[in-house]
Amino acid sequence: MTLQVRYIELLKNSLLNEPYLENEVRLLYIFTMLATQKKVDVDVVREIGRRLPDWVKQVRQARQEGRPWWTVTLTDASGSAQKINLRNVCEFSHTMVGRKRLDNITHCLDIVRTENVPGDLIETGVWRGGASILMRGYLAAWEMNDRKLWVADSFEGLPVPSLPQDEGWDFSASKEPILAIPLEEVQENFRLYNLLDDQVQFLKGWFCDTLPTAPIEKLAVLRLDGDLYESTMDGLNALYDKVSPGGFIIVDDYGDFEPCRRAITEFRQARNINDPIEVIDWAGAYWRKSR
């Protein structure tokens, strides 16, 4: 591996919190014991990898695949099962997209770099900033100083659904507070990796307000992670025409969120886009713009 590739792979490991993944399993164990009013075994906490290897294996696999892992099924004395969501006390990675979708980002950027596809990079919907941090790290590693990274988010969580296409998909801050990460926290995460500088431009607000007027001329990578139909369509309507031929459109939630997939399908049909969609994993997909 070159030094650049070694750095980028280390960055992925850090963003996924893989060096400290066992600490997240420790918290999962502790809060499961508290929820069931059982005694926490300090030996299990200290030796989590040896005492609960299946837990560690399952969480590690889910982290690689970008799948949920923080729901525990508890069974009471009567045999009744209850699921509890421990996400708010266990999840500390800087990204939830998983290894394959991080690898897809660097795959697209490798092509952008080697073929000199013109344009900046943007992610619409960033959570704690992990995928965007990876893109900025890639630019730094390969000294691509002539491109900007645009980081677009409300930094207040997802909007309350306002369109019929998003009915039943409410992930707003009142429902999922863990998705509402403030701008200052995302900026601090960039700073932790020494990647907060003038090449990173933040667009704070709802996509319908910020994206149409953003001073972006060309894009080499458009990464959409807005989950909802409205958010996805806002990103496409404002930014698709700015993607250079040979550039990439990455859709984080294509296989996971029906409203997102519907927006992609309708937009491609309306614009007569026939570039093939490639599956990344169970959730993500992308295509390369031919014209």
Compact description:
The protein is α/β, with parallel strands linked by helices. The protein contains twelve helices and nine strands. It has helices at 3-15, 21-35, 42-46, 48-51, 53-65, 87-90, 99-115, 130-141, 183-192, 207-210, 229-239, 258-270; strands spanning 71-75, 81-85, 120-124, 149-153, 200-204, 219-224, 243-251, 278-279, 285-288.
CATH superfamily of the largest domain: Vaccinia Virus protein VP39
CATH class membership of the largest domain: Alpha Beta
C-alpha Rg (nearest Å): 20 Å
- Strand order across the largest sheet: 5-4-3-6-7-9-8
How many DSSP E strands?
A: 9
Listing every helix as H and every strand as E from the N terminus to the C terminus, the arrangement reads HHHHHEEHHEHEHEHEHEHEE
How far apart are the first and last residues' alpha carbons, in Å? Answer: 34 Å
Identify the overall geometry: globular
Q: How much of the polypeptide forms β-strand, as a percent range? A: 15-25%
Fill in the CATH topology of the largest domain: Rossmann fold
Poorly predicted regions are: none
Main sheet, how many strands, which sense, barrel?
7 strands, mixed
What would you call the structural class?
alpha/beta
Q: How much helical structure, as a percent, in the residues?
A: 40-55%
Oligomer: single chain
CATH architecture of the largest domain: 3-Layer(aba) Sandwich
**What integer is the average pLDDT?**
96
